[in-house]
């Protein structure tokens, strides 16, 4: 092998395989090969399928050939060398999964050029395979990621709908008593009016009762609307109010299961935070309901309770929610925030509630969400960074 051929081969070999991106890799090779062999232009086409031949990289003069015609001829040939016009020759060279096409002036030494291509063929094909495998792997990862995100989105929607159903039930319980009071007050006024014994004091008392309970009903509608609305608008809230709202929305349904919601301690100083309303309620309701479901299964427990607290520390706002259901099995305690993990029957649990809550607190708020077993049961800890505005 001559020193010239050795030098050209060495430079071209070093230009192959420096990237796993097919376009970048072939552009670097073409640039070097064109320079070292005196080509006018160079192109690389990859066979994506039997019907699709795609130009991946092209440098130099605009194409003066029909790629479909060349591709068909290369099915039976490895090399095509022919005149494009009186001064230019086309050299097409078949490689695995594609072809290289160069334009040269007719004076070039084509035996020399084709011998260089022959020496490079194996490495070119190996690196084309590597790049295509990486492309396929990326496509598979992207497709799998899309599928997982879609499944997760559907599960989140199921969770939201499930929680909405529970909240509607809670609101129905909350509304029953005030509606009865309004109905009683209205009937009382009507009867006294018909008997002509309705006094001004009676009227004031009845209307006051109706207005107070109507206001309460309106408030529960606002709570429900804030929870279900899909909005990214921020609002500065008081954390105590969010916690109170969650407990009030759940208290009626918990009462039906003979579960007492106990306020252990709540910081008097108002703790302000900038949030989108719905998701914080989602986290709190998820944890409260998780405790409720654990307690419902304890038929032998005489007094069932859930205690919550809200404290301010030097650097955090700390919310705790504890139950007396006996705690979580130590073998699975570290798995409860994993996606799709559930201790419930498949018909009752998706395993996405606590995973979603963890994502909101940890990934979006830069906070902490963890669980400890106490002498009574499970105790969840929510820690949010103090004096920093985040979007939940």
Task: Explain what this protein looks like in three dimensions.
- This protein is α+β, with helices and mostly antiparallel strands and about 400 residues long.
- It folds into 2 domains: about 5-145, GAF domain (Beta-Lactamase), CATH 3.30.450; about 235-385, Histidine kinase-like ATPase, C-terminal domain (Heat Shock Protein 90), CATH 3.30.565.10.
- The protein has 8 helices and 12 strands.
- The longest helix has about 80 residues, at about 110-195.
- The protein starts with a helix and ends in a 7-residue tail after the last strand.
- The model is unreliable at about 345-350 (pLDDT under 50).
What keywords describe this structure?
single chain, 392 residues, alpha+beta, Beta-Lactamase, Heat Shock Protein 90, 2 domains, 5-stranded antiparallel β-sheet, 5-stranded mixed β-sheet
